[in-house]
Design brief:
The chain is mainly alpha-helical and 251 residues long. It has helices at 2-26, 33-43, 48-71, 79-117, 120-126, 131-168, 174-184, 187-213, 218-250. The chain has one domain.
Length: 251
């Protein structure tokens, strides 16, 4: 038990060092513009399908469950207020982050892990370049930039799913759904979710890169690093969500 605790603390310290190096190289020239654009496309555009699919069915299920429950009290017309707060503050950003942790986090870890075990990272160092600058900075920065955008898309698609269910299954008019949502959901509910997603993006990117850079043992080691990256990033998102929720509720 103590050995696992020491290992966890050691890895936490190494992630802290990687974070320091990330910010050190972030604004140092030359800027890796092409690599950043490639990663923005990878993290953002290529993740839209899985994020949209997750968001729309989550919104539909949320509206259906809440509508059935509120109907017992004759209050199903208020379903948009509750699901709007749930999606914008919590479910939209968290579900988007979990999907990105699974898809992008695994990809980052596998890419860097393969480069590590095939000694390509050592070759970059031998050429006088920094693997942090060339490999880590574009990936982490792209994840930080795209996560709020993906979270906003997940919010919108989830609300559309809830709107469809409210009309077709609950008998709530689309006009009332929209007006009730706009009247009772504040801008702060939306911005708090986007604020969380920035931290989620950082956690996913830095953990995935750390796991990949520390992979060892050939193909088997890359597989272990990839699995560990997805698990660690997903757990970090869920744990940090609690503390970020307390923070945004306090301000």
């Amino acid at each position: 038990m103590l050995e696992r605790l020491y290992l966890f603390l050691d890895q936490l310290g190494q992630i802290g060092i990687l974070t320091r190096d990330f910010f050190r190289y972030l604004f140092r020239r030359p800027f890796e513009a092409r690599a950043l654009i490639e990663q923005l496309d990878n993290v953002g555009y290529r993740s839209l399908n899985v994020v949209n699919l997750t968001a729309i069915f989550s919104g539909m299920v949320l509206a259906l469950q809440m509508g059935q429950f509120l109907e017992q009290f004759g209050a199903k017309i208020y379903v948009s207020r509750i699901m709007g707060l749930s999606l914008l503050r919590e479910m939209g950003p968290v579900l988007a982050a979990l999907m990105i942790a699974a898809r992008v986090g695994a990809g980052f870890s596998a890419e860097l892990g393969t480069m590590k075990v095939t000694e390509q990272i050592d070759a970059i160092r031998a050429l006088g370049s920094s693997p942090i600058k060339k490999l880590v900075v574009p990936r982490v920065l792209a994840t930080i930039i795209m996560m709020p955008i993906l979270a906003a898309v997940a919010d919108a698609i989830g609300l559309v799913g809830g709107w469809v269910i409210s009309i077709t299954q609950l008998g709530v008019s689309g006009d009332y759904f929209y007006k009730s949502l706009v009247q009772h959901v504040a801008l702060g509910d939306f911005t708090s979710g986007l604020g969380k997603s920035i931290f989620f993006g950082y956690l996913i990117g830095i953990i995935a890169c750390f796991k990949g850079l520390n992979a060892s043992g050939g193909a088997d080691g890359v597989g272990r690093a990839t699995t560990s990256a997805v698990v660690a990033a997903s757990i970090s998102v869920l744990i940090s969500d609690f503390f970020l929720t307390k923070f945004f509720l306090a301000i």
